[in-house]
Every structure is written in C-alpha cells, then in structure tokens.
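Input (structure):
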C-alpha cells in the first residue's frame, strides 16, 4: 500500500482581499485616459485594490482588467473592472511608476465597433498590442522588461561578430575561450 501522507497539515493559502481603490488611483487613471486611452472616456470603470501575493505562472502581476459581463454591468454599471496589486502600488510611491502600472493595466481595455444602436462594444486587448505602446510611453519600467532589453542587447552584440569569425580571430591572436 502507498503512503497516505506525512500527517502534516498544510496551512491554507491566504485569500486575496479586494477593496475599493484610493481616489489617487482614479485620478491617475482619469489623467491617463484623457492623454492616452481616449477610447475609454465613455467606459464605466470600477477600480479595486487586491492585497496578498499575486503571481501568474511565476510572474508578478501588477494589475488586471476584466470586461464586465451583462450581469455584472447590471449590478455595477461598469464596463470594466481594473484591479491593481496594492502591495506593488504601495511599494512604488513614485508617480511615474504608478502611472506606468495604470497605463499598462488600462491598455488591456479596448473599444470595438459600435452596435446597431450606436453603443460601444467593449473588449479586452491582447498582451502584444498592449506592451509596445506602454514601453514607448513609460520605458522599461519593470525588472522583467529590463531583462528582456539586456538579452536583446547581448543578442545584437553576438551578431556583430559571428561565432565562426570570432573563433578564427582567437586562433590568430592565440587566445582561447
């Protein structure tokens, strides 16, 4: 017979808590919508904070946007719910970093064509369309983006001197890798 377990009881994972986001979050969002995401000016957006560890596939989550279902919209009046990682928000009091977090999160919210009655159809954008614009506006604002940039730079340096040519140069100079 196989073992049933070690007898230890695992502590339950702490459940995240959701709270209304601060007025500062809403102000930063309004500023970014007016400057960059004008298509969202008509959207009803609810802003929440999420507390607790928040990762997806081992990557830190800064924020998330969800399109509200018809039932959710009935109860909230919102087209989107934007959830910001409160732990990250609080750890980054710099306004530029907070603007980058909000810009990135709002970039997931999109507007498609209007319906037959002229009402906007809301959608969630794909990540690849989101990131290029956010990087253009905010630079490499996360450690992950900085790592990607370093890898790109290293790749380009490797392409300047092809591997075979570098080996031949090493033989001429008497060096060896």
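Output (sequence):
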């Amino acid at each position: 017979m196989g073992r049933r377990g070690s007898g230890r009881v695992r502590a339950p994972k702490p459940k995240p808590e959701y709270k209304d986001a601060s007025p500062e979050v809403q102000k930063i969002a309004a500023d970014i919508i007016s400057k960059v995401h004008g298509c969202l000016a008509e959207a009803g957006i609810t802003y929440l904070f999420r507390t607790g560890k928040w990762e997806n596939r081992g990557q830190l989550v800064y924020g998330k946007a969800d399109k509200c279902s018809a039932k959710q919209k009935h109860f909230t009046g919102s087209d989107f719910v934007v959830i910001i990682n409160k732990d990250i928000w609080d750890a980054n009091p710099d306004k530029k970093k907070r603007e980058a977090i909000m810009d990135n999160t709002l970039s997931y919210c999109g507007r498609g064509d209007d319906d037959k009655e002229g009402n906007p159809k809301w959608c969630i954008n794909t990540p690849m369309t989101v990131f290029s614009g956010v990087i253009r506006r905010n630079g490499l604002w996360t450690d992950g983006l900085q790592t990607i940039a370093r890898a790109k730079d290293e790749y380009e340096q490797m392409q300047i001197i092809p591997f075979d040519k570098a080996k031949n140069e090493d033989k001429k100079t008497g060096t060896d890798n």
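Notes: The beta strands are 17-20, 45-51, 55-56, 59-60, 63-67, 80-85, 109-114, 120-124. The domain at 17-139 is CATH 3.30.2010 (Zincin-like).
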